[in-house]
Amino acid sequence: MTDLINYDVFEKPQWRDFYQAASVPLTQASLKQVQAFNDRISLQDVQDVYIPLIHLLSLKIKDFDRWQDVKSDFLHKKPRHVPFIIGIAGSVAVGKSTTARLLEVLMNHFFPTQRVELVTTDGFLYSTAELKKRGILDRKGFPESYDMKTLIAFLNKVKAGVSDITVPVYSHKVYDIIPDQVQHIIKPDILIVEGINTLQLPSTEQVYVSDFTDFSIYVDAKPELIEKWFLERFDALLKLALQDSDNYYYEYATGNHEDAIKAAKQTWSSIDLPNLQEFILPTRNRADLIIHKGPHHIIDQILMRKY
Known about the structure:
Layout: E1 7-11, H1 12-16, H2 28-34, H3 43-74, E2 84-90, H4 96-110, E3 116-120, H5 128-134, H6 148-160, E4 165-171, E5 176-185, E6 190-194, E7 215-220, H7 223-241, H8 250-254, H9 257-280, E8 289-293, E9 299-305
Parallel strand pairs: 2-6, 2-7, 3-6, 7-8
Antiparallel strand pairs: 1-9, 4-5, 8-9
């Protein structure tokens, strides 16, 4: 793939051998609490892929902090602690949330003196009411469905060291922003930002979200595999929603199952796949590191930018 010519490609055993001086601080049960709904990951994958990645990030963060001190010294300014931001991008249903939560857990363990926060860009989606008002409810997930001005302002505040920043909260249960509920981001040393648009150029802004990130990760897989995972997740969500009338999927769960699956396939082909092809996948080569998955969510390759 010509868009990946500036990446070194490592098979998982090769990547694993770069660093194995630490062991996984998780059990299979605690790992299950971290992984996203219907995603799959093993303790072996954590050892082989994420332990070397955490070590790489520790080196990157030390270098980042050192540069802030050097810059302050050059400018004759008092040193100011600047948060290190990690962006995680990729398609829906590919496992971004698992990667983000796993990094948060591992960093909290291995970097005990650092305050680690995690935020998802889902919180910056316009509400369902606003999407309807704008006539773009069927474009939910596309770039125009996000309040990018507010997201960019949030990242500016993080980098500026604002002490307490509020972020809207999105619920996958009700498939909407929750009114009057916010997440507080309080002076993080490390902020993980996860979402399909973390590498995109907003149409309404002149800067990328990734202009604020100091290390970016793209979780990758073939579209046909992602579609399979998307449909499997949808089917699992139906089972979960059967006893909950407040759940967005309740109507699908209590209706004809074949019709529900047909609707999910239509959603994939008319919304999620075009969004992947037009707006998400083209940003892959902006990532510093790509985690590639094969069948059954098994990570098989890690690609790292050469420069």
